[in-house]
Amino acid sequence: MNYTTQIDAAKKGILTKQMRDVLKEEKHITEDFLLEKVSQGKIAIPANKIHTNLVGKGVGDGLKIKVNVNLGVSEEKNDYEMELDKVRSAIDLQADAIMDLSIFGDTRGFRKKLVDMSPVMLGTVPMYDAVAKYGKNIKDMTVDDLFRVTEEHILDGIDFLTIHAGLNRSCIDRVKNNPRLTHIVSRGGSILYEWMIKNDKENPFYEHFDRLLEMCKKYDVTLSLGDGLRPGSIKDSTDAPQIQELIILGELTKAAWKEDVQVMIEGPGHVPMNEIVTNMQLQKKLCHGAPFYILGPIVTDIAPGYDHITAAIGGTLAATAGANFLCYVTPAEHLRLPDVDDMKEGLIVTRIAAHAADIANQIPGAIEWDHAMSKARRNLDWKKMYTLAIDPERAKSFRSDQENFNEACTMCGDMCPIQRANDNNF
Description:
The chain is built from 19 helices and 10 strands. By secondary structure, it is α/β, with parallel strands linked by helices.
């Protein structure tokens, strides 16, 4: 049987190659469960038909929490070889997705290399590339310019596109009537906001959403509906502009599902801990259970250099309350473009957050990894501990200067309680 998108296939009872990939990883779910949730839009499997070396991943309720890595060059720092090193490292460190946010130079050449070398799902923000590609003043970009770049990303094999289609003129009114501490911090959102204000026109992606859906449907590209008004400070969290945009995103979600186009909803941002659960509940309610893809959320604004930690705290709580997909944050957030080491640290910390949420969500098999580590610790089996560690290299490096302590570590030495218990058969 033929099908157009993963949703269309699921409605027809067809298990696609990508669905079989998901079932291989998510051994705790059944074929019927997956088909039902994909057909409803509650699970998305971003999989552009052109991205032929892709190993499918599912994003949605009942599945493991997924983790994305952002990378890409800027005009100020445009070392494409370093970005390729990040790609290789991210794949080795088991990232579930990579987003290319490049805004300078040969963006298309890099994007094509990324598609060719990457088995993980790939995302981009075409709006960024439109600015970089045409070199026009934002006001002078045309609707066709924006859609031409979007189609180019689709034809290059990108699996999901961040499109800020929900930031319409009603949202502009909310921003004007509800002043913010940090205004608009989304790059894509700020560009569209400027375009709309200077041209006195509606958001092209909102006004011509049907055109966008037609393009995505042809190649089964997932729409990651961007949060152009996400809060950039905890002061602005859960305010009227953010919620207004979320309402619009919910309406666009239903329109996309009607055309069998897969959707993810992007979320905040900066959110104090006491508002995270509320944010997750609002998104799931207003966006009809669509998969939720979040940045952080960062729970305090005072920790530059440590925002991978502030984001992991928020991400863990959010993922236990309904979020499905965590975008990593690096130690360089708010400071500079991250290097390879920043990328690695951000990814590992976010994977820890995702795994902690899998345990809390009682995903079958998640806690067994922890039990295996505990058993290795009980046996003082250091080699096994390294094997099980989420970052084996770091674990080994911390232990490397104390290998003369064949069993215990230098914290307890001869007073090691585990060694004592083992020696005495307690």
